[in-house]
Amino acid sequence: MNNREKAKKLFQSLEKIDPALIDEAAEYHPQKKLTLKRWIPIASAAVVLVLALSLTALFSINHGAMAPAPEQKDTIDSAEAVSSYLDRQVVSGYDSIAAQEGAESANASDDIKTDPDTHSSAPVDQANRDAETVMEMDRDGALPQIGEPLLVWLNEEGTRVRLYQISREGSRAIKQLMEDEDGFEPTDDPDQEIGIWIVDEDGAVYAPGLPADDSRQGSKELIFGKATLNQNSPKLLDIVQTYVH
Amino acid sequence: MSAERLTDEQLIDLFWARNEVAIQETELKYGKNLRYRAYEILHSEQDAEECVNDTFLAAWNRIPPERPESLHAFLTQITKNLSHKRFRDAHRLKRGGMNNVFVELEEIADYDEPDSGEEDSGERIGECISEFLRTQKQDKRVAFVKRYYYSESIEQIASELQMNEANVRQILSRTRKALQEYLRKEGIRL
């Protein structure tokens, strides 16, 4: 048998091969190769993803640089009790952002506890400045949460503030105490000065001394008429301990 | 409706009784599945339909005397064989192209066979080639079957496997040499 005849026999024998091999050849579809052209959209998507992750990480880092909670004192008086409690409950980021207001702000903050003589009652202009400061924070994204009342600790300069979110129940309770004129007194002592600020659902900030917007009747309910409160009040201490969160 | 369909046993009984209802009922029960199988190979609805009709005819001719244990497997195998044959016929090279295929196969056949003994049967050779192909990488195996079973052109194989023609030629050449060596070691006599 010559080679041509053998080749024909081989060809006929190929008809007898395993049908699975024949099926495989008929149905085989190679996986598409990742050519440069196909890599471009994948690479683009990867770059966008990395950028998004980087921005997210950057945002987290900026907002994660929180001021450490103040050290807790072993013995405290009633005024310090409120202060200490509020310090422990501080809304993250507010202090650090407020600190960026400058050295003047920081010094003023220290003055609260060290130099009572520098106190003066909060005038409307000061309250306006405070409101602007808070709103500035809001725009920066540190924000008072919309719809949440804030308990604000401010010095006589009005540039250094500490904000604490307080529930609406707490705010109403404080308001009720004020209306009853029971336990709350205006104070000339800056160490005892405390303010109530309300952030309404539109994000606007109301502060003591600021004229209320008549169009916001609902929000006006939560605005207090007095600019200063005596934080030595045991009732206020109770309310703060109950409602600040 | 499917609940009323006949069992395989009942269908085979109808084939054995030479009752033409057997084909109608088989079409109802397995027609769609067989058409799908044929279409997978042929990629043509018309060819698939014709293949399935040929399947029923083949089943009618083979039962009796055969009595398959699984009518479904029996019909599927017929459909696949017919589809492959149809595909092969459709893609088979013309005379000049086929000559090239035989020239290439001659390369495989050109080895020192055992001096004594009878020629091996087509089944034995086919089985040996199958064993060899299973040891090869998939793309080589597929290229080989496409070339020497389906008789496809180098250009067509290159297109289907997303390779260039030189690669296909190289793969086929190496596979032929490897198969030749395998057949020699197995003592195959053509």
Mean pLDDT of chain A: 56
Task: Tell the overall outline of chain A.
Answer: rod-shaped
Number of strands of chain B: 0
Number of domains of chain A: 2
* Number of E-state strands of chain A: 5
Distance from N terminus to C terminus of chain A (CA atoms, Å) equals 99 Å
Low-confidence stretches of chain B: none
Helix/strand-derived class of chain A? Answer: alpha+beta
Secondary-structure element order of chain B, N to C: HHHHHHHHH
Molecular structure report:
The complex is a heterodimer of chains A (245) and B (190). With 245 residues, chain A is an alpha+beta fold. Chain A has helices spanning 3-13, 19-27, 36-64, 78-88, 94-99, 103-114, 124-140, 168-180, 217-220, 234-243, and strands spanning 149-154, 161-165, 193-199, 205-206, 229-230. Chain A folds into 2 domains: 1-64, no CATH class; 77-243, no CATH class. Chain A has 10 helices and 5 strands. In chain A, helix 4 packs parallel to helix 10 and helix 8 runs antiparallel to helix 10 (234-243). In chain A, 35% of the residues are buried. With 190 residues, chain B is mainly α. Helix content of chain B is 73%, strand content 0%. Chain B is built from 9 helices and no strands. Chain B has helices at 8-16, 21-42, 45-62, 71-91, 95-109, 122-134, 138-148, 154-161, 165-186. The longest helix of chain B is centred in the first third of the chain and has 22 residues, at 21-42. In chain B, helix 2 packs across helix 4 (71-91) and helix 8 crosses helix 9 (165-186). The A-B interface holds A 1, 3-4, 6-19, 21-28, 30, 32-33 and B 40-41, 77, 80-81, 83-84, 87, 101-103, 105-106, 108-110, 119, 122-123, 125-127, 129-130, 133-134, 138-139, 141-142, 145-146, 148-150, 160-162, 190.
